[in-house]
Structures are given as structure tokens and as C-alpha cells.
Design brief:
It comes from Candidatus Buchananbacteria bacterium RBG_13_39_9. The chain has 87 residues and is mainly alpha-helical. Helices cover 79% and strands 0% of the residues.
């Protein structure tokens, strides 16, 4: 696998993996906060949820850039070395 194809896969898959990680963290945070009855735990859980929601929005917006860029890098042909005449 060439260097540009590796970069293409990384750029293409990174937002998707990021979304999965954010969803898992969101569900874990929700489950942990649901176990507590204090107002402090609810406030901290709300702050964490807002931060994770903001990161989720940024990750979804990055899909607009990363998917086309990743596809471009996957189909890009490697530069062929130019043969020059020796004079």
C-alpha cells in the first residue's frame, strides 16, 4: 500500500472512528450520571454532555472535508519519476 493510500484511509476513517468514540463516551457518561442522585453529578454530567455534543458536531462537519479528501488520496496516482536526458 502506497503512502498516499495510507493517508487516504486515515483521513477517510478518522471522522467515523471519532463519531463512534464520542457516542460511546456519551452513553457511558449518561449511564454513570444516571446512577447518582446529587445535583452536582447531574450538573457535571450536563457539562460533559454539552462538550461531547460540541465535539460530535465538529466531527460531523469534518466529514464534509475528510470524505472527499480521503477519496481523492485513495484514487490519486503516485508521481512517476521523470526521465531526463543526460547531455
Amino acid at each position: 500500500m502506497t503512502k498516499s493510500k495510507k493517508k487516504g484511509l486515515l483521513v477517510l476513517l478518522s471522522p467515523i472512528v471519532g463519531l463512534l468514540i464520542i457516542f460511546v463516551l456519551f452513553f457511558i457518561t449518561t449511564a454513570v450520571v444516571a446512577g447518582f442522585d446529587s445535583a452536582r453529578a447531574t450538573a457535571i454530567g450536563s457539562i460533559i454532555s454539552v462538550i461531547l455534543s460540541f465535539l460530535g458536531i465538529l466531527t460531523v462537519l469534518s466529514l464534509v472535508v475528510c470524505v472527499p479528501l480521503g477519496i481523492y488520496l485513495l484514487v490519486k496516482k503516485e508521481d512517476q519519476p521523470k526521465i531526463t536526458e543526460i547531455k
